[in-house]
What we know:
The complex is a heterodimer of chains A (801) and B (331). Chain A is of the alpha+beta class. In chain A, 28% of the residues lie in helices and 23% in strands. The N terminus of chain A is likely disordered. Chain B has 13 helices and 11 strands. Classes of the chains: A alpha+beta (801), B alpha+beta (331).
Amino acid sequence: xxxxxxxxxxxxxxxxxxxxxxxxxxxxxxxxxxxxxxxxxxxxxxxxxxxxxxxxxxxxxxxxxxxxxxxxxxxxxxxxxxxxxxxxxxxxxxxxxxxxxxxxxxxxxxxxxxxxxxxxxxxxxxxxxxxxxxxxxxxxxxxxxxxxxxxxxxxxxxxxxxxxxxxxxxxxxxxxxxxxxxxxxxxxxxxxxxxxxxxxxxxxxxxxxxxxxxxxxxxxxxxxxxxxxxxxxxxxxxxxxxxxxxxxxxxxxxxxxxxxxxxxxxxxxxxxxxxxxxxxxxxxxxxxxxxxxxxxxxxxxxxxxxxxxxxxxxxxxxxxxxxxxxxxxxxxxxxxxxxxxxxxxxxxxxxxxxxxxxxxxxxxxxxxxxxxxxxxxxxxxxxxxxxxxxxxxxxxxxxxxxxxxxxxxxxxxxxxxxxxxxxxxxxxxxxxxxxxxxxxxxxxxxxxxxxxxxxxxxxxxxxxxxxxxxxxxxxxxxxxxxxxxxxxxxxxxxxxxxxxxxxxxxxxxxxxxxxxxxxxxxxxxxxxxxxxxxxxxxxxxxxxxxxxxxxxxxxxxxxxxxxxxxxxxxxxxxxxxxxxxxxxxxxxxxxxxxxxxxxxxxxxxxxxxxxxxxxxxxxxxxxxxxxxxxxxxxxxxxxxxxxxxxxxxxxxxxxxxxxxxxxxxxxxxxxxxxxxxxxxxxxxxxxxxxxxxxxxxxxxxxxxxxxxxxxxxxxxxxxxxxxxxxxxxxxxxxxxxxxxxxxxxxxxxxxxxxxxxxxxxxxxxxxxxxxxxxxxxxxxxxxxxxxxxxxxxxxxxxxxx
Amino acid sequence: xxxxxxxxxxxxxxxxxxxxxxxxxxxxxxxxxxxxxxxxxxxxxxxxxxxxxxxxxxxxxxxxxxxxxxxxxxxxxxxxxxxxxxxxxxxxxxxxxxxxxxxxxxxxxxxxxxxxxxxxxxxxxxxxxxxxxxxxxxxxxxxxxxxxxxxxxxxxxxxxxxxxxxxxxxxxxxxxxxxxxxxxxxxxxxxxxxxxxxxxxxxxxxxxxxxxxxxxxxxxxxxxxxxxxxxxxxxxxxxxxxxxxxxxxxxxxxxxxxxxxxxxxxxxxxxxxxxxxxxxxxxxxxxxxxxxxxxxxxxxxxxxxxxxxxxxxxxxxxxxxxxxxxxxxxx
Lengths: 801, 331
């Protein structure tokens, strides 16, 4: 039957068919790889130092780019003269803002960034000019040869100043702000009857919280290399979560058609949202490469990474909650003032998410939200793991805890009374499908021995709970388009390996492994036959990128659908070899296996040989587009997702009442991510989320002295170390989503937010204080403890008098 | 960010190092482990044209309870069995410095001679430019105390110095005019640029000498920092105490670091307690005395008021830990 002379190419050693009742999952779902602890396919490359990150790439004749960053927070550029710098031997080009003045931004409705400052500087650290030179030392030398004159303007450094009308001696940060102030986006939403609910509530709680900005602190600094090829195409290697948006923005700014731009994502050393915008430096190195005709590389210093920021917004949030005498939440009121920094970034979405992602995981019949995102003269805030949900989540979970404390209720029981059911709709139009929140809460309560501990631990030791939910991919696209949200291409040739072309960005979260696992599962093949090519816009189908926790759900479904087409081709081949009906075949263990007549089974390589005959490589394309959903009001699309993850955490900790130090002891975590595709990867995401959330609640903050970031380095910006990482007990709750790939949902972001209130509520249980300023550094905690002691003494004195 | 260019010298003896320092004068820096100097060089902080490495001088690696060579690595001190049984405070202090990878490189001499640190100083060039630079590097005004144009308030963060202070140790110096010895308590100056009293050109620290009597003291070190690793101290407290059989205090020494521009001995503030009977109440009084006597500059993490208060708390807790006579009898 074979047309090749060397048939051994097709006839690899295959084991005898395994016992069909052998290594199978207990829930009767017959999976080979799904649910198995599968090491990430790039793990060996990374731990042996062989993975190629952007900075590892060297091209012939490559120049080094350095960007001169403004020491001013808000200033009008009166003059830039680069002629002396350009004359320095070894300097090939100097770029200034007016060389590429077209504005861009990740959101089409918020295009307010330029490659370099044009006319004015809006934050300390913004790029003013850029040098491409033969060495870093030369580029830095050229900095001193550029003559700049500026007029400094009054900077806006306080959120409240950005809300009010500007004064005579002030200038708006952006001309395009609609009114005479620095407000970027205002959102107001109201559902049900919040004022009635507050009036009639048995219990209400109100509290205000201050959140400092935090940043991603990914390991790999930002880097990019641009190359203007001899055939006049722009190739850029860039450490990106969303190469597609970079592709779009480059086309706009450089006025090049998209087909003349190729964006390649090498291995990325972490992103967490901080590499998901199209970036000024990507425009800069591209322009310089086009100008000089030589490859141009930029690698940020860590300080520059901090200036690039796009981290979580500093926010002042006021929350109100109303609860009936049966312990049912009747209303939630959230008011958030959000500091966006100098540019828009994802900020319009942030302004919505601070409200809309408070709608679960409880039934909230009446809801009111006011969100205001303002511009300030600080590095831009943007999307960061748990985007928009994290700060508001702390507020509402603490408010619920306050009511429980006042009413004498158990916080676990009250939460269980309020959880959303599965398959329901919320007042704002969200569609909830699979939902494991009850099991999450019950699991952590049981495993932590909650009922023996809450309110019963010795002074200084406490236990607290926090819950949350998160989108599993945004149902609406940022750029209106009729394209699918994700597409995966597969190719199998006579070597029997499976080539997966995907546009999803593996940023360390394991999306390449996920795609490989999904395809391998459908085709009944081992992982070692999978090879993933991502992301190269010349070869990869478009995927909207790694943000909004969308990849497993959307890219996973696209991969699965592509694989199912190949599966059908292989089954057809088996039918033609064996003559048995196609319904009797399934793919597993490298066989096209016949369920009813095992002797009629066909080895994978034999079926492939038959399928390839007279056709050549098998190719398939699968895609995913979210179904229509949601209501029609303005902003209804924000937070809409085909499904949501659910999470519950309990934290037990100690507070040293004399020093204010918080020491988390144990964390019990339960996360509903639908079907667990790869337990190693999911547990890693949950543990990483907890660790990152602990950073925000305990010690991380962007610390400013006026306009200047004081701690733009990884010594003074304090990411928790392993010595502060408590024992973590992670349970994965499998609600099996009806639409997700094999029932899977997200696990990368939803696991962050609930740790903040779990810690805050445990601190209250330990020492009886509500700390309302994050991070809860020991001085802040001690001040709160001392305030309470003074108040207690005063009250005692009053009572005895 | 690449290191700036400099000429690297690696002498084989302490005498050769002294000769090189004498030859290059203000154009030379000393480096041992490099964990302090090299990050500062990357930030272009007072770079010199010559860097003289002590790494090749084997004679500076001595380690005994009475003599510790300047080139002894912190990790060697941390793991020393002989120190564990004689001067556990040194082991404890070394183990609290920075992080395990840096302790593999950092040295005793390097930690003692650590440059002073400040929010306004340990920054990249652009950042410092935005503040018009500070007195310690390129500027003409201290940014911590803006009224000061002749005094730098950068904070000294070396940790071993506090431990050596309470042990009554002295530094062994070698210079062009030969060797001399200076008590640690006489060596440092409370000024962030000057840093040392009577520092003589070309002189290097070759080691630390600790009196035999120090081994009779119960001594310990406690460090305030937000994270349990990596961070420089926001406060370090060293306490050494000895009580007699009747629980009367015979010797009491307290020192702090990371509060001012030098390690501070608080011995004179606590001497009045010598002769008193040790008790929980006296421990609290000693803590209060340290709290009241401490001062702290506002240029490292955590505010001065909090750090001063913690100086008192840490002192009391150290006393409770070191000698049961100070401990709470209830528990």
